[in-house]
Amino acid sequence: MLVDASTLDDAGVFALRGRETLIQTVDFFTPIVDDPYDFGRIAAANSLSDVYAMGGRPLTALALLCAPERTLPAEALAAVLQGGLDTMRRAGVSVVGGHSVRDTELKFGYAVTGIADRRSLLRNSGARPGDRVFLTKPLGTGILSTALKQGRLDARLTRRLAAQMATLNRVASEAAVAAGARAATDVTGFGLLGHAAQLADASGVTLSLHPTTRWFLPRALELAAAGVVPGGLARNREYYEASVDASGVREDWIQALYDPQTSGGLLVTLPARRAPVFLKALARRRAWVIEAGSVSRRGAHAVALSAA
After folding, report:
1. What is the pLDDT of residues 96-105, one digit of tens each?
2. How far apart are CA 289 and CA 142, in angstroms?
3. Is the pLDDT confidence value at 237 over 80?
């Protein structure tokens, strides 16, 4: 085993022959959007994200499906499966089978297997003082999904939310590996601050982050200020608050930074001299990216926030 649960990395990594490694991960969840096809796409992208976060290439997947027997129309279930399959095909991943069980609530996702060169692995433990920190998708999917459930999201923003969550992290991962990134994690259920704290702890450093309004999806800060937030946000904050210095940062920003994300972007650290290579690669692919801060020697907190 090269990577196990001890560093809270996104996937397990097992050594094969030579420099080749095997990456394994699994993820599934309940619907977060109304459209079944979009739900399938999002579940697939989210399941693949952990392999991309390790700097790997996903190869195969096994579908995991929990479905109500009488209350879910067959057409809706077929759309969920088709959305997942189309996304897997777009990623070049073979769905080799799966397993289903009866359940009172729909749940869907995949177990994914990938490979990576061990020299290119992106672990939580690789960040070093002097590195620059980048974020590759805007934040706020948990808040906007909660607003959608409450009927407070218009059609245009609903489409943008679904499109972002269905976007693969493949481009960002490939650019990070090519640029010589040292560490990465995908920003998902523990929110930006939770995942940043995990990476900082594993690396023995402090991440100094400088949030701006550009970090967030439209209306995310407005809705956070109005208290339209998912239940997991408070749990994230309770668990990670002692690791974060957020003095002087607005409360709505802090709320949004703890927001649990679905299929979020990558948080990447790389040497400052390699940052232009990373940014140019993403610009060529028209991929969203923002410089989020820097890595410094370990201080009193895992993460230090300051308004930019």
Report:
1. 999 999 999 9
2. 19
3. yes
Phi, psi of 157 (to 5 degrees): -75, -30
In degrees and rounded to multiples of 5, residue 107 shows phi and psi of: -140, 145
Alpha-carbon span 50 to 290, nearest angstrom: 20
On the question of pLDDT at 307 being above 80, the answer is no
Q: Which ranges of 64-180 would DSSP assign to H, the alpha helix? A: 74-90, 141-149, 155-165, 170-179
Name 183's Cβ contacts closer than 8 Å, sequence gap at least 6.
122, 123, 124, 125, 126, 127, 131, 199, 203, 268, 269
Q: Residue 279, Cα to own-chain centre: how many angstroms?
A: 19
Give the contacts of 32 (CB within 8 A, at least 6 positions apart): 39, 42, 145, 148, 165, 262
Catalogue the long-range contacts made by 85-92 (C-beta closer than 8 Å, 24 or more residues apart). Answer: 85/40, 85/44, 86/40, 86/41, 87/40, 87/41, 87/44, 87/45, 87/48, 87/166, 87/168, 88/44, 88/48, 88/61, 90/168, 91/44, 91/48, 91/58, 91/168, 91/170, 92/58
Q: At what angle do helices 191-203 and 231-240 cross, to 10 degrees?
A: 30
Q: What is the number of other CB atoms lying within 10 angstroms of the CB of residue 104?
A: 9
Domains of the chain, with CATH numbers?
Answer: 5-119 (3.30.1330.10), 123-305 (3.90.650.10)
pLDDT band at 308 (very low <50, low <70, confident <90, very high): low
Q: Which two tokens stand for residue 292?
A: 């989020």
User: CA-to-CA distance for 166 and 271, rounded, in angstroms?
Assistant: 29
Model pLDDT, residue 7: 83
Tell me how far apart the alpha carbons of residues 267 and 233 are, in angstroms, rounded to a whole number: 19
CA 208 – CA 58 distance, rounded (Å): 31
The tens digit of pLDDT for each residue in 251-290 reads 999 999 999 999 999 999 999 999 999 999 999 999 999 9
* pTM for this model (two decimals): 0.95
